[in-house]
Amino acid sequence: MGDRHELENKLKGESLVRKGLMRSHAHIKPMRLIPDLHVIKIGGHGTMDYGREVVIPLVKEIGEASKDHKLLIVTGGGVRVRHILDIGIDLGMPTGVLAELAGKISEQNAEMMALLLSPWGGTRIKGEDLLDLPMMLKLGFLPVTHGTPPYGLFEHPPGTGLIPPHRTDTGAFLMAEVLGAASCILVKNVDGMFTENPFVNPDATLIPETTVDELLAMDMEDMVLERKLLYLLKDASSLKQVRIINGHKRGNIAKALRGEAVGTLIRA
């Protein structure tokens, strides 16, 4: 076997998986590209599927908030995602294919949301446009994108079942993390995280503030957000919390942007 060709650098000869190497640069904090950005994820199932009665007032609230805050709007898929997943699972589609199919639905919601927000500069963007956001925000655009992470056919195995574990909650969080955003706000159709699904058990208790470890220890049967997001939050470098709010109640987005105690705050 001949000698390996090397370029002189600090990682010369490294496997890139050595534990000591990981620890050696753990103190280095990545730059925060847009530290005053707020990522707002608009759920498809919890918001878009309710139609104009819920969506139009929410759009106006977001539009007004964009005058004072830098925002990135991220959309979910909703009922149509559930429909295509149901068909795909029944037909035995692999998880990566299901992720591809689901992503196309949240893209449709992003297009509609961008058009609704056009009076305030709403502009449809795609994943490859994220690094253009600093300039777009300076020019007065209100960027809107879909939340499905671009794993596509390379989606991670879910562990149990076939449903892709990384969906639009995790996609919104990953965008907020890579941009070094100030916050990630998940807009749902409930007041926050409850001890149980409040639509199933009306006596479920709202959890105003909690941590990742506390939620994982509860081992809930159901959650208002994707479980995978909790593990991502625990390992994040820039974003150390997410907030869940009810988008059906006017004023909640403004409160969340001001950092007020509304909904549920989940800390790393």
From TrEMBL:
GO molecular-function term, one example from the UniProt record: molybdenum ion binding
Domain spans labelled Aspartate/glutamate/uridylate kinase: 39-235
GO annotation, cellular component aspect: cytoplasm
Domain of life: Bacteria
Cleavable signal peptide: none
Pfam families linked to this entry: AA_kinase
Cross-referenced InterPro entries: AceGlu_kinase-like_sf, Asp/Glu/Uridylate_kinase, MoSto_subunit_alpha/beta
Protein name: Molybdenum storage protein
Organism: Syntrophotalea carbinolica (strain DSM 2380 / NBRC 103641 / GraBd1) (Pelobacter carbinolicus)
